[in-house]
Write a structure and sequence with these properties.
Helices cover 35% and strands 20% of the residues. By secondary structure, the chain is an alpha/beta fold. It has three domains: 143 residues, Rossmann fold (3-Layer(aba) Sandwich); 249 residues, Alpha-Beta Horseshoe (pyruvate-formate lyase- activating enzyme); 57 residues, OB fold (Dihydrolipoamide Acetyltransferase, E2P). The strands form six sheets. The chain has a five-stranded mixed barrel with strand order 15-16-17-19-18. A four-stranded parallel beta sheet has the order 1-2-3-6, sandwiched between helices. It has a three-stranded parallel beta sheet with strand order 7-10-11, covered by helices on one side. Helix 8 packs parallel to helix 9 and helix 13 packs parallel to helix 14. It binds iron/sulfur cluster (SF4).
Length: 464
């Protein structure tokens, strides 16, 4: 989701004449879109921004800004942590980043040209007060973390890609109304707000017109999309109505979504997998824990049985379905028994992959204050045990693909080996193969799978 928000901000700069650079040394503005899911991510962003302050020694005008979740939750406090920071923009204000940066930058460059830096006194960026120091570098301290109605409708533009783009993310909603005790998202992203179906369909059509064949619909809890804004029609939730509408887009081959939640995962969504063939045979379905006691402590309002039942129904609806998940190990109060319950559930579902997170305290969340915090050694041991089991399950599952022919959407050169191409199956398995990047990127190909190394499949394109 952060990636998608960053793309939106980058696009606003690009369409107004700025050039994107991959080299931070060349940049006139450096923006970090921050994540608050784990403390480590915040520390990394702060550290990175601190180091980049050196660029101002050679290029006095450079604008530095934080966007996203950490910006939202910490606000002004960030100026104390990073003295050279100019801008703090929250999660409902991505569409205003360009104006803030452009305004600060223009004034700095004008000042440099006039050589009157020491005399520039005050200014305003839009409605935000800008404090300006009587220094050679005009120091702008802009904070904008307010709520803004309709902000979910502003994440809709895409950066044109150099190679034929095979797939794209489409943000369908913002915010979350849940209150999981380990999560900061409800504070940083606000309440659930969905975009209108017609707008989303238009965005998908424009992507398909550029050659995109697969879209992933994004939301904190996608299956709850639109529940407070749009009505149920013919027993179908707004999310299923949206899937049907996107499915109609001619030229679109594949639809994915992430992430669903057991609450509101109803039979209409299960059934959609039986009559919407463009829906990929994969769901990423966060389980977090297999223990009801821990789910309760996590303030996830359902029992594990509900999660397991949905998985069973989904497998019945789509027999080749791959299910991946997120799991937290070492949550406060997790006993060995709770941990083993989670391991059992993982085996029972037979996840194709799991993103296993070792619990770490997240500031300003209830779980950080809970009793029964586990020591690092216990968390690490459980993490390794779970990882080992998942690796074995993934290898066994992927080996079964050897000898089969898989329909693969070619995404272009592989990131780890530019000589080879990479793509994904409907089950979201990564496949590496040889071929002509220019001709094959963005195309659906039949690939004969010949090998597997745990998480990756290797094959050869079938010649028709
Ligand atoms: S469902 Fe829970 S974990 Fe997911 S975004 Fe909402 S509060 Fe966070």
């Amino acid at each position: 989701m952060n990636e998608r928000d960053s793309e939106q901000v980058a696009q606003t700069f690009s369409e107004r004449g700025y050039t994107l650079t991959t080299d931070e040394k060349d940049a006139d503005a450096i923006l970090i879109n921050t994540c608050s899911v784990r403390d480590q991510a915040e520390q990394k962003a702060l550290g990175k921004m601190g180091i980049m302050g050196k660029y101002r020694e050679q290029r006095e005008h450079v604008v530095f800004g934080f966007m996203g979740c950490m910006a939202q939750s910490r606000g002004e406090e960030l100026f104390k942590r990073v003295p050279h920071l100019d801008l703090v923009v929250g999660t409902q204000k991505y569409h205003r980043v360009f104006d803030y940066v452009d305004s600060i930058l223009s004034r700095r460059l004008e000042t440099r040209m006039d050589e009157v830096g020491a005399e520039m006194v005050t200014g305003r960026v839009e409605d935000e007060i800008v404090k300006v120091n009587l220094d050679r570098v005009i120091s702008a301290r802009v904070v904008d973390t307010d709520d803004e109605e309709g902000s979910q409708n502003t994440i809709k533009d895409h950066i044109p890609k150099e190679v034929q783009q095979a797939k794209a993310f489409v943000s369908i909603m913002q915010g979350c109304n849940m209150r999981c005790s380990f999560c900061i998202v409800p504070d940083t992203r606000g309440k659930e707000r969905g975009r209108p179906i017609a707008d989303i369909v238009e965005e998908v059509k424009s992507l398909v017109a550029k050659g995109v064949k697969e879209v992933t619909l994004l939301g904190q809890i996608v299956n709850l999309y639109g529940r407070t804004e749009f009505p149920i029609v013919d027993g179908k939730s707004p999310f299923v109505q949206l899937l049907e509408a996107v499915h109609e887009v001619e030229g679109l081959e594949r639809i994915r979504f992430t992430s669903p939640h057991p609450i509101g995962y109803r039979d209409d969504l299960v059934a959609a997998f039986t009559y919407l063939p463009k829906l990929c045979s994969h769901i990423h379905f966060p389980m977090q824990s297999g223990s009801d006691r821990i789910l309760k402590l996590m303030k996830r309002p359902y029992k594990n049985e509900k999660f397991m039942t949905i998985c069973e129904k989904m497998k019945a609806a789509r027999p080749d379905l791959a299910i991946t998940t997120d799991v937290i190990v070492g949550f406060p109060g997790e006993t060995e028994e709770d941990f083993q319950e989670t391991m059992e559930c993982m085996k029972k579902v037979g996840f194709d992959n799991s993103f296993i997170f070792r619990y770490s305290k997240r500031k300003d969340t209830p779980a950080a204050e809970m009793e029964g915090q586990l020591d690092e050694a216990t968390k690490e041991r459980r993490n390794q045990e779970m990882l080992k089991m998942q690796n074995e399950m993934t290898s066994a599952k992927n080996e079964k693909f050897i000898g089969t022919i898989q329909r693969v959407l070619c995404e272009g050169p592989s990131k780890s080996n530019k000589e080879k191409l990479c793509g994904r199956t409907s089950q979201n398995k990564i496949v590496i193969f040889e071929g002509d990047a220019e001709r094959m990127s963005g195309e659906m190909l039949d690939i004969k799978i010949e090998d597997s190394t745990g998480y990756t499949l290797y094959g050869t394109p079938e010649i028709h």
